[in-house]
UniProtKB/TrEMBL annotation:
GO terms for molecular function: acyl-CoA dehydrogenase activity; flavin adenine dinucleotide binding. This is Acyl-CoA dehydrogenase. Residues 292-419 form the Acyl-CoA dehydrogenase/oxidase C-terminal domain. Keywords: FAD, Flavoprotein. The lineage of its organism: Bacteria, Pseudomonadati, Pseudomonadota, Alphaproteobacteria, Acetobacterales. Pfam families: Acyl-CoA_dh_1, Acyl-CoA_dh_N. The keyword Nucleotide-binding does not apply. Residues 27-122 form the Acyl-CoA dehydrogenase/oxidase N-terminal domain.
């Protein structure tokens, strides 16, 4: 295998492999990476420009990826997949975002998250197993539909959704404010409150929804970047589903989040942000080494200021990549190389033990991409401001990193709060009372205020009992 990075048969014009942590990949993964870079050069990058201009969903890219077996990347070999690892998933997403199409990388991230949720609970479920076997053959794109219009980025809190028992199966109602590949995916993993929900929002269940049960309006999709992503609202309005459309047992939602959906979303979306950062560094290298100022006879890349910009961007981005690949290895280590067979035991949750590390990974990658895209724009001057150079497109795409849930505000809160006050203080489902706040507020009331509060509480209580 060549150690020179090629692009359409020529030497690649951006950073070479000497700036990539190739040592984390085995030979098969390096070969896959090389084929993927060639695919990006042949079609995926051109498709990205078209997707961005015309809001086209990147199905063409998925069709090409299916030929490399990438839709079944995580699916065990005995089910016809590539049986690959977390490390490989991180490499594939980063490669697609960097050389090909960030929108495709994000749609693929959601596909891998949905695939992970299905793999976690496919063992005795013929419906899930059938889909997993056909991912590449039939180009079956999956996605995750979690974010709720009433709870914003708190995607683990689906107030507007519910499920009911219906004969031998289920009736599912889902309202989602954002769903990548919405209206274009072939299958959706959605989360709702459980069929026997009694007011405890940690009681969540996951369902597999077929494309024809989903209402969407792709024509209304609009966004600053990731325009091929088609992350519009969707609705599932009382669709009746068979028994095995339930993914795992009822009440499995929190386990599914912590063990499958969150670890894969955080790992792969971080790889997408790193890929975008690398993509703009590549462009900046090409531009600044080719443009000359004839008055002084210097290329832009000859100015120490520009060298400093690029040097710092490479170091910051490689620190973020090192973190992603270190955590991918940690996930591989605790799962015996992403072996899904351990999950016949429903309580086997090895990835969940690393979730607070995955929060840190996403925070760093999303923070870095915003900084690096900005600095590479500065390094390329006014030419970078023009869409033709493509820095502008990557810059807009990278802006999604910070705001995608869990947002970076939420993540730094999680890490700061959990480290200072313990994990219990995170209180995802708003169940524990903060007595310090309560006592402090009550302390401010005079005697009349306390009496009115007591009367209100008693009246509320009476109403509840009645
Ligand atoms: C391109 C794109 C693709 C997406 N794809 C999907 C998808 O496939 N599936 C899916 O389920 N969702 C998806 N989302 C939704 C995403 O995960 C978030 O739910 C969404 O971006 C939140 O937007 P909002 O306006 O509701 O933010 P809000 O939640 O209203 O946030 C507004 C501000 O409040 C801050 N904030 C919120 N909660 C707290 C808190 N507890 N503490 C401190 N600050 C807080 C936020 O950080 C932010 O600064 C996507 C979003 C984007 C941009």
């Amino acid at each position: 295998m060549s150690s020179t990075k090629t692009w359409g048969g020529e030497e690649f014009w951006g950073l070479g492999f000497e700036w990539d942590p190739q040592w984390v990949l085995n030979d098969a993964q390096k070969a896959l990476q090389a084929r993927l870079i060639e695919l990006c050069a042949a079609t995926m990058r051109d498709n990205a420009i078209e997707s961005d201009k015309t809001y086209t969903y990147p199905r063409k890219n998925f069709e090409a990826m299916a030929e490399l077996g990438l839709l079944g990347l995580l699916v065990p070999k005995e089910l016809g997949g590539l049986g690959e690892s977390h490390t490989c998933a991180a490499m594939v997403v980063e490669t697609i975002a960097r050389y090909g199409c960030p929108s495709t990388a994000m749609c693929y991230t959601m596909h891998l998250g949905a695939t992970a949720a299905a793999l976690l609970r496919h063992h005795d479920n013929a419906r899930l197993t059938d889909i997993l076997k056909r991912l590449d053959k039939d180009v079956l794109i999956g996605t995750l539909s979690y974010s709720d219009p009433e709870t914003g980025s708190h995607f683990w809190y689906p107030i507007s959704s519910k499920a009911e028992r219906h004969g031998d199966g289920w009736k599912v109602f889902k309202k989602a404010s954002w769903t990548t590949s919405g209206g274009f995916a072939d299958w959706y993993i959605v989360q709702t409150t459980s069929p026997d929900f009694a007011g405890d929002y940690s009681d969540l269940s996951c369902f597999l929804i077929p494309a024809d049960a989903v209402k969407s309006d792709p024509s209304s999709w609009d966004g600053l970047g990731l325009r091929g992503n088609q992350s519009g609202p969707i609705e599932v309005n009382g669709v009746v589903l068979p028994k095995d459309a339930l993914v795992g047992p009822t009440g499995d939602g929190a386990r599914s989040n912590d063990e499958a959906v969150d670890p894969f979303f955080l790992l792969c979306s971080s790889s997408c942000w790193n890929g975008i950062a690398l993509g703009v560094i590549d462009i900046a290298k090409r531009h600044t080494t080719r443009k000359t100022h004839n008055d002084v006879g210097m290329r832009v890349a000859d100015y120490p200021t520009i060298q400093d910009y690029v040097g710092e961007a490479i170091m910051d981005t490689n620190a973020s990549r090192a973190f992603v690949f270190q955590m991918a290895k940690a996930l591989d280590d605790v799962t015996n190389g992403c072996d899904w067979s351990v999950h016949t035991d429903l309580d086997a949750l090895p990835r969940a033990t690393l979730l607070h590390w995955m929060w840190q990974v996403k925070f760093m990658a999303a923070k870095n991409v915003a900084h690096v895209t900005d600095k590479m724009l500065h390094a390329c001057g006014g030419t970078g401001f023009r869409p033709a150079l493509q820095i502008e497109r990557y810059l807009r795409d990278g802006k999604a990193g910070w705001v995608m849930g869990p947002t970076n505000e939420v993540l730094r809160q999680f890490v700061g709060k959990a480290s200072l006050l313990g994990f219990g203080s995170l209180d995802y489902w708003n169940k524990s009372v903060n007595h310090r706040v309560l006592d402090n507020e009550i302390k401010k009331l005079d005697a009349e205020g306390r009496r009115q509060l007591a009367e209100k509480l008693l009246a509320d209580d009476k109403q509840k009992v009645a």
